Amino acid sequence: GYAVYASEPIAKGELLVMWSGTLVDSTKLETLPDAFRRHSLQVEDDLFLVSLTDSEPADYVNHSCNPNAGLSGQISLVSMRDIRAGEEITYDYAMSDGSGYDEFDCSCGAAQCRGHVGGKDWRNEALWVRYAGFYSPYLAVRIVRMKNRRRAQLRRARIDGLGKSASLLTT
Predict the structure, then answer these.
(1) Across-strand partners of 49?
(2) What is the arithmetic mean of pLDDT over 14-42?
(3) DSSP secondary structure code for residue 59 in this structure
(4) Residue 171, Cβ density class (10 Å: 0-12 exposed, 13-18 middle, ≥19 buried)
(5) Bigger pLDDT: 107 vs 156
(6) How much is the CA Rg of the chain, to the nearest whole Å?
(7) Burial readout 50-61 (b: 16 or more C-beta within 10 A, e: otherwise)
(8) Residue 87 belongs to what H/E stretch?
(9) pLDDT tens digits, one per residue of 125-170
(10) What pLDDT shows up at residue 125?
(11) By CB neighbour count within 10 A (0-12 exposed, 13-18 middle, 19+ buried), where does 27 fall?
C-alpha cells in the first residue's frame, strides 16, 4: 500500500498535512465508490470530507494504534512528538472517526494495537488521555458530554447512597 514518510526530521507540533475535498453527508458517502470512501475524513457528526483527486498526501497517512501525529482542528494533522527522517507518519483514526463508515481489522503492529479500528474507538477512555488535544473538534465535544454525563451519574449515585445511609440511621 501507500504511506507518507518524513523526508527530514520534524519537530513536535509541526503541521504535516491538510485534507481537502468536498463535503458530503453519510447518505451521499454511501453512494460513492470505495476508492472515494477510503480517502475521506469525518469532520462532523454527519459530514465527511472526500478528496477530489487520488494524489492528496493526507489521504495516504495510515492508521496506527501508536501514532506520531494527531489532529489540530478538523483538517490539519500535526506531529504529536518529534519524528525522525524516514519514519512513517501515522495517526489513530479514533481521533477523527465517530461512525462506522471505515472499519477494518488493524495490523499496525503496535504493542497496544486494538486489533480492530471502528467508529466507536473514540469512546475508549484511555485514548482520551493519550490523545488529549488531538481529537477532531466534534469528537472533543462528544467526549466532554460523555464525561459530564458520567460525573452527573456518579453524583446521583453518591446522593442516593447518602440517602440510604440517612434512612438507615433514622430507622
Answers:
(1) 23, 41
(2) 93
(3) G
(4) exposed
(5) 107
(6) 20
(7) bbeeeebebbbb
(8) none
(9) 999 999 999 999 999 999 999 999 988 888 888 887 666 655 555 5
(10) 95
(11) exposed
Q: Are 90 and 37 in contact (CB under 8 A)?
A: no
DSSP three-state, residue 105: strand
pLDDT above 90 for 39 = no
| Long-range contact set of residues 76-79: C-beta below 8 Å, sequence gap at least 24 | 76/15, 76/17, 76/18, 77/15, 77/16, 77/17, 77/18, 77/19, 78/13, 78/14, 78/15, 78/16, 78/134, 79/10, 79/11, 79/12, 79/13, 79/14, 79/16
Residue 171 has pLDDT above 70, yes or no: no
Q: Which three cell numbers stand for residue 31?
A: 453512494
Instruction: Work out the angle at residue 105's Cα, subtended by the Cα atoms of residues 46 and 27, and round it to the nearest 5 degrees.
Output: 20
| Residue 56 φ then ψ, to 5° | -80, 120
Q: pTM for this structure?
A: 0.86
Burial of residue 111 (number of CB atoms within 10 Å: 0-12, 13-18, 19+): exposed
Residue 133: exposure state from Cβ atoms within 10 A (0-12, 13-18, ≥19): exposed
Cell matching residue 75: 483538517
Calpha distance 69→134 (Å, rounded):
8
Which residues sit opposite 105 in a β-bridge? Answer: 116
End-to-end CA distance of the chain: 71
